[in-house]
Specification:
Elements: E1 2-8, E2 11-16, E3 22-28, E4 33-38, E5 41-45, H1 49-58, E6 63-67, E7 70-73, E8 79-81, E9 86-88, E10 99-101, H2 107-117, E11 122-124
Parallel strand pairs: 8-11
Antiparallel strand pairs: 1-2, 3-4, 3-7, 4-5, 6-7, 8-9, 9-10
Keywords: DNA-binding
GO molecular function: DNA binding
Pfam family, one: LytTR
């Protein structure tokens, strides 16, 4: 995928990013762009998140819509917090870890589908 990385307030660069490293993507209505979250940072691209979802699925990637305008990569989720309804991408998340919220009204169906797509997924409540 061709994405934009902001180097500073006035400078950007365009790079190629492999879809399999993406943790989740969300549409930012205020700036009319897609925000792409990966382990080492955040990237951006223009376009429609629905179009991107169809493209990624057609290419064989397992992205799932977890909220309106938010896609999550099922292969990169490690843990789901049942209480806060959040997905994490690290086995031992901290307060500073990236997380992706899952819509309350879709939560149970989303967790079922994510577990089918990624059987190694840990679904727990925090102690």
């Amino acid at each position: 995928m061709e994405v934009i990385r902001e180097l500073d307030k006035h400078t950007v660069e365009t790079i190629q990013l492999a879809a399999d490293v993406v943790w989740f993507m969300e549409y930012d209505r205020r700036k009319d762009r897609i925000v792409i979250h990966v382990q080492d940072g955040t990237y951006y691209m223009n376009g429609s998140i629905k179009h991107l979802e169809v493209y990624l699925r057609d290419e064989g990637y397992r992205f799932l819509e977890v909220d309106r305008g938010t896609l999550i990569n099922a292969d990169n989720i490690v843990w789901i917090n049942l209480v806060r309804k959040e997905a994490f991408f690290e086995p031992y998340p901290t307060r500073k870890s990236k997380r992706c919220s899952i819509a309350h009204h879709r939560f149970l169906n989303t967790v079922d589908e994510l577990h089918r797509m990624n059987p190694g997924l840990s679904v727990t409540s925090p102690a």
